[in-house]
Amino acid sequence: MIPYGKQDISDSDVQAVVDILKSDYLTQGPKVPEFETLVAKYCSAEFAVAVNSATSALHVACLSLGAKKGDIVWTSPISFVASANCALYCGAEVDFVDIDTSTGNMCVTALETKLQIAKSKGQLPKIVIPVHLAGQSCDMARIHALSKQYGFYIIEDASHAIGGNYKGHKVGSCVYSDVTVFSFHPVKIITSAEGGMALTNNSYIARTMKKFRSHGITNSEEELQEISHGPWYYEQQALGYNYRMTELQAALGISQLARLDKFVKQRNYLAKQYNALLPKNVHHLTQNTNTESAYHLYIIHLDEKVSNSQKSLITTLRAHGIQAHLHYIPIHLQPYYQALGFKKGDFPNAEVYYSKAITLPLHPNLTQSEQLFITDTLRGLL
Ligand SMILES: *Cc1c(COP(=O)(O)O)cnc(C)c1O
Fold it and tell me: Which of 40, 209, 234, 266 could form a disulfide with 219 if both were Cys (CB 3.0 to 4.6 A apart)?
């Protein structure tokens, strides 16, 4: 099966992990801070907090921005469920902003309209979480302008987008947001097996996310609320979690980071090849001129006139050994979210998108002959 996504592991990645196994620290050593510093520097952000997944990063980001019962968080319905679940973990309510079907990203016009209505009802969101679908940044400058006008925080869910650019800034720079979150799951752009990171330019948010990562505990002199009892002293100041990244994961992440630009370049090359090879009656997601995608996913849309159904296409492609996929099922249609009151028809663009989208395999080691086989097979089915 040609997988829809796959990690690239080199001998130096293997060596980096083995070196840690032979070292003094398997966790809470020097590699996690080194990985944080390198990613922050790569993105030109001031602070980075490594955790055990992007899901944990989204959770500590929401907590650090004060999300709690009575608050409202908005995100995109076309995302992985973690983009919405993070708000529910904090006791906040979730709602969605419909997408722009051409990019699959949150529609800024829909966001503005929804904000006007929410303002008149006194139900403005505390946090908005735009998701950079497939690796292309949302229109962050416009979302940022709206955040100033309506007074909400922004967490970028950039799980797909490390290595991408927006208006000449690296995704993760947090020029237009409070926090940006990356995922290092193996199908994403770089991997630490499981792992995630939250970047910010705000030292208070960074400190608070670090506290929530590790039980709500601090031993840092300037944060202590009481007088230290001695060199063993620490204080639990909030109800935190154990969301720590291990040294093994950080070492793998550091080793992978050295090849990030190469991966993104190869993914962009392969996406261009796909664009040229696609049959006429399918379309790829629109790429805006002010963005450079990291191309986590290559998503196509079927034309109205295509005779074969999306379901039969994906099933048949898989029967041919091609792991076609579909990103994503609109979150509001998940049974858990329907039980919260969401229903079919709530976000029509997301639902139209879902009825037409197919993800084709894309990873740095996809070969030209595999790509030709995929596009030829697809053409034969249409
Ligand atoms: C993968 C992903 C996540 C969750 O990442 P984990 O590291 O697996 O927790 C969150 N949001 C989006 C958009 C993702 O694709």
Answer: 234
